[in-house]
Design a protein that fits this description.
The chain has 185 residues and is α+β, with helices and mostly antiparallel strands. Helices cover 64% and strands 17% of the residues. The protein starts with a helix and ends with a helix.
Length: 185
């Protein structure tokens, strides 16, 4: 028996409908796969950007540490130039004095442009973050904890301590008397 044209048409439509459904299912699967790949790509891109930022921070930190090491090595030279200026003033050798002062000024400008600044210590209250107390001196003229003298100048580099100031700090005379009285008892 041969199928009637209506049945063939229904059968053809059924096959087409089935193919359409299969294609729609394939399309949904592909859309899901594309979304998965797109999300993975977004995460990979974010990870790459974070890695680039981290690497840049590490590079900046390494450069900063290298700069600090160099600056720390320059500070004794600055101090020696200061001593040379003082010695030239004492000997009244104006030619040497002018030359050394010029070198000292240029070096100071360079340090300043790099973000190095001296720590002001004398007359200030002792700050363990900025100062290193090497001596305590009894003084009734100054409040306790006041920096009396700077033995070695300290410096900041971009707001952070590059080298702490070595200082003499005032101590009230009563501390020693109290201590002696406690020891005698």
């Amino acid at each position: 028996m041969t199928p009637r044209p209506e049945e063939e048409e229904d059968e053809g439509e059924g096959k087409l409908q089935k193919q359409v459904e299969e294609l729609e299912e394939d399309l949904r699967e592909e859309k899901t796969r594309v979304e998965t790949y797109l999300n993975q790509l977004k995460y990979a891109r974010a990870d790459l950007e974070n890695l680039q930022k981290q690497v840049q921070r590490r590079i900046d930190d390494a450069v900063d540490r290298g700069t600090q090491r160099l600056l720390l090595r320059l500070l004794p030279i600055v101090e020696e130039l200061d001593l040379a200026v003082e010695a030239a003033r004492e000997t009244e050798n104006s030619g040497v004095l002018e030359g050394v002062e010029m070198v000292r000024r240029n070096l100071s400008k360079m340090l300043d442009s790099e973000g190095v600044s001296p720590i002001e210590a004398v007359g200030k209250l002792f700050d363990p973050n900025l100062h290193e107390a090497v001596l305590q001196v009894e003084s009734s003229d100054h409040p306790e904890g006041t920096v009396l003298e700077e033995l070695r100048r300290g410096y900041l580099y971009r707001g952070r301590v590059l080298r702490a100031s070595m200082v003499k700090v005032a101590r009230s005379p009563s501390l020693k008397e109290d201590k002696e009285a406690n020891e005698d008892e």
